């Protein structure tokens, strides 16, 4: 009896230490975000679209077909009553730390705590993970959902009495579909195949139920506002450059230098030191699979590898541009076998350290972290400069009399309009939501301005409007309402 109690206490202590280790990684992730990404950084273009749907700063921006409402609901607790970007960033940083912790906890019992902690650290120290941690963007949340879904699926497969794991599968799939429905389908494809092949009907039903629960609003909105699901998918494909066979691996490599969106992706390749880790990652993951096969635990390593592959496939081979955030779900899943591989390299089967190998790997990781920090720092600086320019443009527009209620259209109208407190409109392109007649009609009652790049030709209807030069933009302001307009 005493021995059984001692074993129970020992097991409880080990589990507590494991949870503490994961909590430390998650807490450090939040702290480093707040230190390096700067909470006062203004909202970006896509963030403006999501936040404006529920915020008080400006009217809701146009919501295009590929987008889902998950991020808007995620930020609602803060954005619905406060316009403070700093408060929103702190909230998202804390929430993303919690998301990382829960994503790693979903794998308890499948990998030792030290492997899970190492995987979390590897994923959390990528510049793209840190950069998007405090941002109102969906991809990192798809990554957390992928960790929860795949981990709980494997736990439930191993223990059919683990009901919490089944609910975890449903919740993780719902989170992914809530954020990006098409990404959720790609991530869960191997799980659905495995569920059918192995007749795990309950798990397959949990995955499908989660996808339906998270994606139902998106489907309903497709029929209400886009003419049907097929039409919305086709429209989303068109906006993303017509999905099909597109070799985008080189585009992803170019974006690793810190390009948050590489479209078109025509720049030079960055120095190999910037993307070397990108080629090491799959090699270590495959080595991790070999270790798992040798140790007789193939499935728990093979399944996340397959899900990472299907998650990355459309962004490597079906889209004509790149953004580093697109691959966050794949990186999160790959981190597990990579961490397992690294720890197996630095220790013997008996658990003893290999000092020479450990020193080499530590040196490599130190160099990797240095590169990630440099890219992150430059990306944050560049992003801050761009968003300060929008803020300055908004202040100048206010000085010129363009104040809410108002309408902006043209180049960068969506972010500048948000910073100004105006509505945004477009007569063409991916965000078309009005017509020339509508713009002229609006100009009879509220201030309207057209933004263009310096030297660019404005729309015909605005050529005689008063010209002003802003920070990297030219603005033409319609005559004062009531003074008469010439179309």
Automatic annotation (TrEMBL):
<feature type="transmembrane region" description="Helical">
    <location>
        <begin position="353"/>
        <end position="376"/>
    </location>
</feature>
<feature type="transmembrane region" description="Helical">
    <location>
        <begin position="140"/>
        <end position="158"/>
    </location>
</feature>
<feature type="transmembrane region" description="Helical">
    <location>
        <begin position="273"/>
        <end position="295"/>
    </location>
</feature>
<feature type="transmembrane region" description="Helical">
    <location>
        <begin position="301"/>
        <end position="319"/>
    </location>
</feature>
<feature type="transmembrane region" description="Helical">
    <location>
        <begin position="326"/>
        <end position="347"/>
    </location>
</feature>
<feature type="transmembrane region" description="Helical">
    <location>
        <begin position="116"/>
        <end position="134"/>
    </location>
</feature>
<keyword id="KW-1133">Transmembrane helix</keyword>
<feature type="transmembrane region" description="Helical">
    <location>
        <begin position="86"/>
        <end position="104"/>
    </location>
</feature>
<protein>
    <submittedName>
        <fullName>Putative Integral membrane protein</fullName>
    </submittedName>
</protein>
<keyword id="KW-0472">Membrane</keyword>
<keyword id="KW-0812">Transmembrane</keyword>
<feature type="transmembrane region" description="Helical">
    <location>
        <begin position="201"/>
        <end position="224"/>
    </location>
</feature>
<feature type="transmembrane region" description="Helical">
    <location>
        <begin position="21"/>
        <end position="41"/>
    </location>
</feature>
């Amino acid at each position: 009896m005493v021995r059984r109690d001692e074993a129970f206490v020992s097991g409880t202590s080990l589990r507590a230490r494991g949870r503490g280790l994961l909590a430390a990684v998650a807490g450090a992730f939040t702290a480093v975000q707040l230190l390096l990404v700067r909470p006062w950084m203004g909202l970006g273009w896509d963030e403006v679209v999501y936040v404006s749907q529920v915020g008080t700063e400006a009217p809701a921006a146009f919501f295009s077909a590929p987008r889902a409402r998950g991020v808007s609901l995620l930020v609602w607790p803060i954005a619905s009553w406060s316009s403070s970007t700093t408060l929103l960033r702190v909230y998202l940083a804390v929430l993303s730390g919690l998301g990382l912790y829960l994503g790693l906890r979903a794998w308890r019992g499948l990998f030792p705590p030290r492997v899970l902690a190492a995987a979390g650290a590897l994923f959390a120290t990528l510049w793209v993970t840190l950069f998007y941690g405090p941002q109102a963007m969906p991809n990192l949340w798809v990554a957390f959902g992928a960790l929860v879904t795949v981990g709980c699926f494997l736990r439930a497969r191993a223990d059919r009495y683990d009901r919490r794991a089944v609910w975890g599968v449903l919740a993780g799939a719902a989170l992914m579909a809530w954020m990006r429905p098409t990404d959720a389908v790609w991530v869960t494809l191997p799980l659905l195949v495995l569920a059918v092949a192995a007749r795990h009907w309950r798990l397959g039903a949990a995955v499908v139920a989660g996808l339906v629960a998270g994606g139902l609003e998106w489907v309903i909105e497709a029929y209400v506002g886009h003419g049907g699901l097929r039409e919305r998918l086709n429209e989303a494909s068109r906006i993303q450059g017509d999905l099909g066979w597109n070799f985008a691996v080189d585009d992803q490599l170019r974006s690793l230098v810190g390009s948050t969106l590489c479209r078109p992706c025509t720049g030079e390749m960055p120095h190999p030191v910037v993307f070397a880790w990108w080629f090491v990652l799959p090699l270590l993951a495959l080595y991790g699979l070999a270790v798992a096969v040798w140790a007789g635990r193939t499935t728990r390593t093979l399944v996340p590898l397959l899900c990472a592959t299907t998650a990355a496939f459309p962004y490597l081979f079906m889209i004509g541009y790149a953004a580093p955030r697109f691959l966050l779900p794949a990186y999160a899943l790959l981190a597990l076998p990579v961490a397992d591989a690294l720890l197996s390299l630095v220790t013997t089967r008996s658990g003893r350290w290999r000092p020479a190998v450990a020193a080499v790997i530590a040196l490599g990781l130190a160099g990797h972290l240095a590169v990630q920090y440099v890219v992150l720092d430059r990306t944050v600086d560049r992003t801050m400069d761009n968003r300060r320019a929008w803020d300055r443009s908004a202040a100048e527009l206010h000085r010129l009399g363009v104040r809410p209620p108002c309408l902006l259209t043209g180049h960068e109208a969506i972010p500048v309009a948000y910073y100004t407190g105006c509505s945004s409109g477009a007569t063409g392109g991916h965000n078309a939501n009005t017509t020339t007649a509508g713009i002229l009609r609006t100009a009879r009652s509220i201030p309207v301005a057209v933004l263009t790049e310096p030297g660019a030709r404005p729309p015909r209807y605005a050529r005689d409007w008063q010209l002003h030069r802003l920070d990297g933009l030219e603005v033409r302001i319609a005559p004062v309402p009531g003074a008469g307009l010439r179309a």
